[in-house]
Amino acid sequence: MTNSTFSRPHGFYDRTAAESAAAAHIAAQLQNTLARFGYQRLETPFVEYADLFLTKSGDDAVNRLFTFELYGRLLCLRSEFTPSAARMYVERYQHAPKPLRWQFAGEVFRYETPQRNHSRQFTMVGTELIGAAGASADAETLGMAMHALQQLGLQGLRLVIGHVGLLAQLIEPFNLDRRLRRFVLRQVENLRRPGRGRAYVEAQLAKLYGDLPDSEPSSAFPAEALAADSDKLGRALQLLLESADLGTTGVGRSSTDIAKRLLTKQRRASQHADLMQALDFLEQLCALDGAPAQVLPALERLIAPGQTIGRALFDELRA
């Protein structure tokens, strides 16, 4: 009989002795392969300041972090290794000879909806290559990853290569703000994954951005005015609130905070149509499937005229 008072939290797991030994063996094999490629193992803390992860992934990332407050600072359980590696580089390795080849292994935590084969706690083995760039650095990382998996005895592997820089350029014409642009860039997997698709993406959008209306902004603040002179509009809102003697609210928000919030909500409303068009475009992109000879010409047709950077990145991918 299970005592529910002491049950395991949903989305987390125990490992038996056999399971623990198997996981440790796999991780050790991967780490040994990475070491043969010259990647040194470093360790980072389980707990970091949440700002470190929000800087990399945007403010909405707080919804995917396990966070808690200590002495007025927001901390979190690590959800990946890259932000911690960046912090370590800035603090201790800026002047070290390049390139730096690091590997990391350990538990990471993400506050996601638990489902089959996808928990809130998992073991990650990863690398960072700092100070090297270009196709040769990409080839090293990809080749090393395939070799490490083959060393585990896996066969019939299929390598899927993406280009987030190209994708970011392709959605540039939709003029999304930084947070919405990051949201869109993260939806490729969800649009492709069976059982998710567009409905799931829009549900996630509603959950993360509940202040994003499903209509155009009011005519009092047309989109053109918001885009052209948001600083002046923000100051005008602040002056209006101050003149109404609303310097602070009952929860301690200043007129400046309220003005910024109102302006952000209005700007988001002005972007609703652009966001829907961006998701339409992303669906077209995700529908591309097949051999490079068929997919690359179709991808080229999706590049808008005048996108010189996007064109250059596409040429790099095709080469």
From TrEMBL:
Q: Which domain of life is it from?
A: Bacteria
One of the protein's GO biological processes: histidyl-tRNA aminoacylation
Cellular component aspect of the GO annotation: cytoplasm
Q: Which Gene3D superfamilies match?
A: Bira Bifunctional Protein, Domain 2
All residue ranges annotated as the Aminoacyl-transfer RNA synthetases class-II family profile domain in the record: 26-239
Q: Name one GO molecular function term.
A: histidine-tRNA ligase activity
* PANTHER family, alphabetized: HISTIDINE--TRNA LIGASE, MITOCHONDRIAL-RELATED, HISTIDYL-TRNA SYNTHETASE
* Identification of the protein by name: Aminoacyl-transfer RNA synthetases class-II family profile domain-containing protein
